[in-house]
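Model: You mentioned two targets. I'll fold them one after the other.
Researcher: Yes, keep them separate.
Model: Target one:
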Amino acid sequence: MSDSVVREFATNDWSVYRTRFLIRAKQLRRPLSFKDALGREHHGSPGDYLVQSSEGLFRIAPREIFEDIYVVMENIEDQSRSWTAPLSRQRLSA
């Protein structure tokens, strides 16, 4: 990395961001592999998270990344009932 690039990153003009989407997630207890609706393969290990987006799509998030980004929300049981894409709709295999 050149000195000018390092100086550019060393400035104090950084912005703070937050994620804007709500997701549902479940920590995996055993390995999980599946192919999503777009044909992409996903693989997770115990401790990783199975994540469902608000659009109903599933993905695997590594534990370290997931726990660094997301914070659990309490008392949203009523909201969780409105999610329309149950896990059984996609081909998942343990």
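Model: Target two:
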Amino acid sequence: MGRIRAIGFDMDHTLISYNREEFEALAFRETLTKLIAAGYPEELATLCFNPNLLIRGLLVDMDRGNLLKVDGHKYVKIAFHGHMRLARDVRHRLYNSESFKAASLLSVDTFFALSEVQLFTEIVDYMAHHPGKINKTFREVYQDLRRFIDLSHADGSIKNVVLADPGRFVRKDKQLAPMLVQQIEAGKSLFLLTNSSWDYTNALMSFVFDEKTDDFATWRTYFEHVLVGAGKPGFFMGAQPFYEVMTDTGLLRLENGGLKPLSVYQGGNAVLFQQLANYRGDEILFVGDHLYGDIIRSKDSVNWRTLLIVEELGTELVKLELLKESLELIKQRLQDREECDEELQVIRSRKRHQAQQADKAKTVGEGKKAHYLLKESEKLTGREDELQLQLEQLDRDIKELLQEREAQVHPVWGELMKVGLERSRFAEQVAAYACIYTSSVTNLRFYSPFKRFASTHDLLPHDL
């Protein structure tokens, strides 16, 4: 952190923390209303948003209508079609027997995607139980859904409701302003970089930063630069110019010079921002919640340092702390299984060797030796059967323990960062692209602005 000169913050789900149940239910309802108005069955109106049904990190197969959880080796471990869990053999045939391109599927990387993916899941389930009622492919359904949720954001169906009662949809964090001040006092330059429009940004940031001080009269005084309507991830890859926002009228003016401190700009691109603000890639830390739009693109395109907000960890870590004993029990069972399997393989090797020796003895007329070897092989067979039964029981025990543990975290999908004991695909991407990650942006206040965050030793199998 000592080498970081500028810290950029996303707004939604980063500086602004939403009441997800209220906000996503609103998006769900407004999108569903438009779908029904466009000709989808009226009985869909009974559908409701369930904030606990889905998690981030899932993949959506829009062609088959399936929802997948994938491990770090691109192996599909859990799959649903609507509310029906796909059997292992079906899942294996569709995804694991041959390679599939995870990049071609829709990745659920942000909280904003949860309402639309749940709505898609509900409609897929409806189509499975009411064939012929919706004469569209699953992909066409998702395209309609995507179009109407975009329209709900654009026509004010969502935004106007939020702005009319921000206290219902947005949570205030009293530690937010002190955290920003801590970074400013350490000599860091702060900037806001959001895809939200100026009017929406100004309203919500004013609501959250409502306490004025002598040094910070408005929320804008915390930030040297305010960049709205950025169009991430395109901001990190494109070449669009900056437009200064006339905050009194909302009109735009093309910016041909430098970026003036405390002014508001729309559009732009990362390379031009670095030139105008006089920062280079690794001097900038960008903080955001969207794995692809905020973290992967900023890291890949301009080599900014990255801090990913993983809000779910705030509650997951509490649950995992209570499940430490169950994890140790699973590890012990895995060790027992390893030892059992090792003994089993040794016995099978000895049996094969003895069978070969018995055949040789018979061939050369050593009947007594052959008889002895076959008797010894029979003894090994008894032990082999015992170990095989023990191994099968251990497999059942481990599976049951894992399922019980995962259900304590989430009844369907388990841990965000794991599939069983393997890293999830989401976790692999976090490890690859997020320099650091945390459950809340205000956790920065617990550390010096000059702290060096060092990774713990990352073990590979050969290190063990």
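Researcher: Noted. Anything on target two?
Model: Residues 367-409 form the longest helix (43 residues).
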